[in-house]
Amino acid sequence: MKRYIIVADAARARVLVRDGLDPVREVEELRHPEGRMHLGALEDRGKG
């Protein structure tokens, strides 16, 4: 039986799979670099 495991934070997600008694292996990695930026770097409202 295949089991999928998702491990994620604001900047990266990893999809892991384990099939039966086989070791866990990574099948995909998704990145979102903006998730690592500070809020002030994401917004530009001009002079405050």
SSE layout and pairing:
Blueprint lengths: L1 E7 L3 E8 L5 E7 L7 H4 L6
Antiparallel strand pairs: 1-2, 2-3
Short summary of the structure?
With 48 residues, the chain is mostly beta strands. It has one helix and three strands.
How would you describe this protein?
The protein is mainly β. The chain has a domain at 2-34. Helix content is 8%, strand content 46%. It has a three-stranded antiparallel β-sheet, with no helix packed on it. Strand 2 (12-19) and strand 3 (25-31) form a beta hairpin.
For the structure shown, list the relevant keywords.
single chain, 48 residues, mainly beta, three-stranded antiparallel beta sheet
What order do the helices and strands follow?
A: EEEH
Percent helix range: under 10%
| Arrangement of strands in the largest sheet | 1-2-3
Contiguous runs where pLDDT drops below 50 for at least 5 residues: none
Cα-atom Rg, whole angstroms?
A: 17 Å
Query: Could you give the count of β-strands?
Result: 3
Share of β-strand residues: over 45%
Q: Which shape, going by the Cα principal axes?
A: rod-shaped
Query: What is the end-to-end distance?
Result: 56 Å
How confident overall, as mean pLDDT?
85
The main sheet comes to:
3 strands, antiparallel
Q: Helical segment tally?
A: 1
